[in-house]
């Protein structure tokens, strides 16, 4: 269970203290108030309900089904069930959980407990089976009991309904009778023609509403009725109580005093703000009484609509209509319609409609494997409802607009040839030749190539190295600020155009984009930011991870800059940063040691590129560009469109576009559920490796303490999510860097083989385990929204088998492995420097003030002319370096792993670079040929470039 360790429970049992016990240690009968905690039990240590309930809920129902079925088959009596403490603990857990989920409710659990106490095990088992079938998604109809009332039969039919189902949160301190009336009204409102059905989740307090939003991913809307109270009466875990408190931070203070109309409105506004901050995808509705007209005008920006209590049917229609908007996939629907419609094909695509395939005897297996719909949907027509990607006006334009809504962008653009192309589009749209771009040196190679293509001057930023594991972390904010200050001191700050950073990195290091952008804008208010979020698209759909996405950061920063409190704080800070008499800026140390505030008139210009196909549902190469640019309507849009036209194919793959449309629908409808499950399974995997007696001898899960130096972390927990939602939330709010918990980096030094060998020869070849990345001594296991509990269990099983093999001297063949790990890991080399002929000019008055930017483009093209380069073998190159020469790289040299260019065109080759490359001993190095050696620019050519 997420956020729970065995020592959180007496005896280490996962459901311990869920139920109380009498003085003799026996479970208290339901007839004795078993589910109502006695006073003695309130003093016991009780974990309450964990923040992630999907697995606890499922496991508790499944265990009850197993235990009661066993009891029924054995003909047991109450003494048998009374002795099974796990049954009662599960019931206690479910009694709390079901308050926050639709479909059954607390009274359903209480009724099961009563039946068990009365020895009616068959009836209890039937009720439990219905709950399990609902959770499993089973739609096999149960027998309708004719002895039930019409309302009870209607509820039973409702539980069997196969239509897509969502849940609506109602916040109202109503009675049990009022809740029954609401559910009865809902059943009467249902129509067989409705595309969807929904359940109510009715909670009495603001705290309960926040708990429901944090734990129940099935919620798509919330109806707030004035009159609720603040504090919950449920027994919650300390972690969840802390998470509720964190959720309320930043909203208006809770009203005190009697339930006056003014206090009631403030309470409603506070809750609405809290829920919007947690789950912006939730539609908020207000169900008011008196003065509804004045409330509607005042609350429009918080609520989609305001209703009177008697307008139940209008609310019902609004809920269904809104979910229909989320469900809508305009481009996919157009593709479906195109495939169904007969057509004559007279364009350049023989495979269209299956024309060149269906009648062929030689490639009929194409259709057998992929299906006819793939071919029916193929066309090169870019008009009508299918639209044109380069100039969309109908379905594609609407699909991209819906994606912008889902991801919190002002504009979103689909890309069908990957985020590599998306990055090049943004670079070309923003940067002109000669402008400076500050970029993380170990970013994806597409950024290096984009900088070369645009002719920008490249100023590399150094991430902190993780030498023990042969990969980099992220770039500390202090280094970014220092470089901006250096450009300012040199009088060149106006040349700095854009900052490009990877959020999150391949290895899971995540920035705080809002803080980075705010502090950089404090130094240069018109900076543009490109956040490469190729591996972070999923983060938008979890209440905690969402905060560190570029689009949310841009929106929050935009809102902050427009507040009076920020304006006052900014003016006060500037008094400290500038001498009041001379106007001279304070020393760099002052700027570096202070959390800088962006000027209120700063321009927010933020772009994010995401590989939708990497972490969400989309076909390979399906990516998106998200835009939050306040200058987009005044010139920037035209430049973007030109760049988009430059790099986008005139024959885009319509299947990829349709998958992006569908992937957007999925995450709006169930993104929170999928991401919550993904993160929870990742924590389970990490915990299993860390605690298994055999696995922990051979493997080690790297945590925040391994991957982030202490100076960049305020919190001290090594795996925050494992410690609970509140700890996770706290770390992601305060720390400069955090680790994406969906990525599990495992150190494999104990196996005696290197990462590449472990990946290919053991994981993939022997067991079919596929992984993306390894380093010299680590393997990265990534969970995603498609990861299942079975897949995690299989991986653990495989790791146990491998651990047994590597620890058994009679079974292990490590001594024969070609990839045996060296005793000493190679140190990661910093970027040396651009050669003088491609570097920035050295200030005559201060040679030590050399700035790091260089001309990649000139060096790249110099390296392409065969008459200008030579190939030099490593030993000869080392000799030249030792005698004082400074060889210059003619191209990009990128070893896999670690997967970033160790050398770029125009870079001076140093002994540190050669040491790293010689020790790396990797199988795949782009830009280097072992037979010929390194490609080096001839000295005379470099000298000519310097003279120019």
TrEMBL record:
Chain intervals for the UniProt region annotation (Disordered): 1-42, 142-164
Positions with biased composition (Basic and acidic residues): 154-164
Keyword Transferase: yes
Comp. bias regions, Acidic residues: 143-153
Domain Orn/Lys/Arg decarboxylases family 1 pyridoxal-P attachment site intervals: 329-559, 605-789
Gene3D superfamilies named among the record's database cross-references: Orn/Lys/Arg decarboxylase, C-terminal domain (3.90.100.10), Type I PLP-dependent aspartate aminotransferase-like (Major domain) (3.40.640.10)
Protein name: Decarboxylase
Protein source organism: Brevibacterium metallidurans
Upper lineage: Bacteria, Bacillati, Actinomycetota, Actinomycetes, Micrococcales
């Amino acid at each position: 269970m997420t956020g729970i360790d065995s020592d959180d429970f007496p005896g280490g049992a996962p459901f311990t203290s869920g139920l109380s016990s009498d003085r003799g240690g026996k479970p208290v009968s339901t007839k004795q108030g078993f589910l109502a905690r006695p006073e003695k039990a309130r003093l016991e240590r009780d974990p309450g309900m964990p923040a992630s309930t999907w697995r606890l809920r499922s496991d508790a129902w499944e265990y009850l089904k197993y235990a009661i079925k066993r009891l029924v088959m054995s003909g047991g009596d109450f003494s048998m069930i009374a002795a099974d403490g796990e049954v009662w603990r599960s019931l206690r857990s479910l009694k709390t959980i079901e308050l926050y989920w639709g479909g059954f409710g607390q009274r359903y659990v209480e009724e099961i407990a009563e039946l068990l106490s009365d020895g009616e095990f068959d009836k209890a088992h039937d009720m439990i089976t219905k709950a399990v079938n609902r959770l499993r998604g089973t739609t096999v109809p149960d027998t309708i009991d004719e002895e039930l009332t019409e309302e009870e039969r209607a509820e039973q039919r409702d539980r069997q309904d196969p239509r897509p189902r969502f849940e609506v949160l109602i916040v109202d301190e109503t009675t049990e009778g009022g809740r029954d009336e609401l559910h009865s009204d809902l059943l009467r409102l249902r129509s067989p023609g409705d595309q969807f059905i929904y359940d109510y989740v009715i909670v009495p307090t603001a705290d309960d509403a926040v708990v429901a939003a944090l734990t129940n991913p099935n919620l798509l809307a919330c109806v707030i009725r004035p009159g609720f109270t603040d504090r919950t009466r449920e027994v919650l875990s300390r972690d969840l109580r802390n998470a509720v408190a964190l959720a309320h931070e930043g909203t208006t203070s809770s009203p005190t005093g009697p339930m006056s109309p003014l206090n009631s409105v403030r309470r409603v506004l506070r809750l609405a703000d809290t829920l919007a901050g947690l789950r912006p995808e939730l539609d908020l509705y207000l169900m008011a009484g008196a003065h509804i007209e004045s409330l509607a005008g005042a609350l429009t920006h918080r609520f989609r609509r305001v209703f009177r209590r008697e307008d139940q049917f209008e609310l019902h229609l609004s809920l269904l209509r809104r979910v229909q908007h989320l469900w809508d996939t305009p481009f996919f629907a157009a593709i479906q319609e195109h495939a169904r419609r007969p057509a004559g094909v007279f364009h350049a695509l023989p495979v269209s409609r299956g024309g060149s395939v269906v009648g062929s005897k030689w490639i009929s297996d194409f259709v057998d494997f992929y299906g006819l719909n793939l071919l029916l949907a193929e066309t090169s027509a870019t008009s009508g409802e299918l639209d044109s990607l380069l100039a969309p006006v109908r379905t594609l334009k609407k699909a991209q607009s819906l994606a912008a809504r889902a991801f919190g962008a002002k504009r979103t653009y689909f890309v069908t040839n990957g985020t590599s192309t998306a990055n090049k589009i943004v670079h070309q749209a923003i940067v002109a030749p000669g402008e400076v771009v500050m970029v993380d040196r170990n970013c994806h190679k597409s950024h290096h190539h984009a900088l070369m293509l645009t002719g920008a001057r490249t100023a590399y930023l150094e991430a902190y190295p993780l030498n023990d594991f042969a990969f980099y972390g992220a770039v500390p904010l202090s280094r970014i600020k220092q470089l901006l200050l250096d450009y300012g001191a040199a009088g060149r700050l106006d040349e700095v155009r854009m900052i490009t950073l990877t959020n999150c990195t391949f290895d899971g290091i995540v920035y705080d984009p809002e803080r980075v952008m705010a502090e950089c804008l404090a130094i240069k208010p018109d900076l543009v930011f490109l956040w490469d979020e190729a591996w972070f698209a999923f983060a938008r759909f979890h209440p905690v991870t969402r905060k560190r996405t570029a689009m949310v950061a841009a929106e929050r920063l935009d809102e902050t800059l427009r507040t009076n409190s920020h304006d006052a704080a900014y003016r006060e800070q500037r008094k400290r940063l500038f001498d009041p008499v001379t106007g001279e800026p304070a020393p760099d140390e002052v700027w570096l040691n202070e959390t800088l505030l962006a000027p209120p008139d700063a321009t927010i210009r933020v772009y994010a590129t995401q590989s939708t196909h990497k972490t969400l549902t989309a076909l390979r190469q399906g990516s998106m560009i998200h835009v939050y640019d306040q200058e987009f309507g005044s010139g920037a849009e035209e430049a973007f469109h030109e760049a988009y036209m430059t790099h986008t194919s005139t024959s885009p793959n319509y299947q990829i576009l349709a998958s992006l449309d569908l992937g957007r629908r999925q995450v709006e409808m169930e993104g929170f559920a999928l991401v919550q499950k993904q993160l929870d399974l990742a924590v389970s995997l990490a915990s299993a490796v860390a605690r298994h007696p055999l696995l922990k001898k051979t493997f080690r899960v790297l945590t925040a303490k391994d991957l982030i130096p202490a100076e960049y972390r305020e919190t001290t927990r090594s795996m925050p999510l494992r410690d609970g939602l509140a700890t996770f939330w706290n770390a992601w709010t305060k720390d400069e860097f955090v680790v994406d918990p969906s990525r599990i980096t495992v150190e494999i030094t104990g196996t005696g083989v290197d990462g590449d060998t472990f990946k290919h020869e053991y994981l993939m070849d022997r067991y079919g385990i596929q992984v993306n990345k390894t380093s010299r001594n680590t393997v990265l296991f990534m969970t995603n929204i498609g990861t299942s509990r079975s897949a995690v269990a299989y991986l653990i099983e495989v790791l146990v088998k491998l651990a047994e093999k590597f620890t058994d001297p009679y079974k292990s063949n490590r001594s024969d492995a070609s990839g045996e790990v060296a005793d000493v890991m190679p140190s990661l080399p910093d970027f040396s420097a651009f050669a003088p002929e491609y570097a920035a000019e050295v200030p005559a008055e201060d040679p030590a003030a050399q700035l790091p930017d260089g001309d990649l483009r000139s060096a790249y093209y110099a390296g392409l002319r065969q008459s200008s380069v030579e190939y030099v073998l490593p030993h000869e190159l080392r000799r030249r370096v030792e005698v004082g020469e400074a060889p210059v790289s003619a191209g990009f040299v990128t070893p896999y792993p670690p997967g970033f260019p160790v050398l770029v065109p125009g870079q001076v080759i140093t002994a540190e670079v050669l040491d790293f490359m010689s020790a790396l001993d990797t199988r795949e190095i782009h830009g280097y040929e072992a037979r010929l050696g390194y490609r080096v620019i001839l000295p005379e050519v470099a000298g000519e470039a310097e003279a120019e």
